[in-house]
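Subject: Sanity check before I submit

Could someone independently write out the structure tokens for this chain? I want to compare against mine line by line before I put it in a report. The sequence has 111 residues.
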Amino acid sequence: MRIRCKLLIKSLDMETISVSDWSNLTLHLEESLTSALGHYLDNWRRNVTAAANALDKTLAEENVRDVIWYLAVMIGMFAFIIVAILVSTVKSKRREHSDDPYHQYIKEDCE
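---
Independent answer below. Compare away.
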């Protein structure tokens, strides 16, 4: 790129510029601008790709954390419901005493 700029400056320093020099100047200018723009776009694409990769990595990590929290909450709720059912069943079994009239009625029928 520096060589092209030097050639461009040298060609501009000339007092008389012929038609072929103008076409050379145009070609040099076109090549310089195309190269500079291509270089800029390549760097920009690499930066965008790097940013997209970093964002994807961050989102994947957050997604895993969200899934872990979701599973922990769901398992906790399930465990709470199961424990509540077991406790209520055990309490209802304890309330059946031998002096319960219904219990006495069944006991007498079985004898």
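---
OP: Matches mine. For the report I'm noting this point. The radius of gyration is 42 Å.
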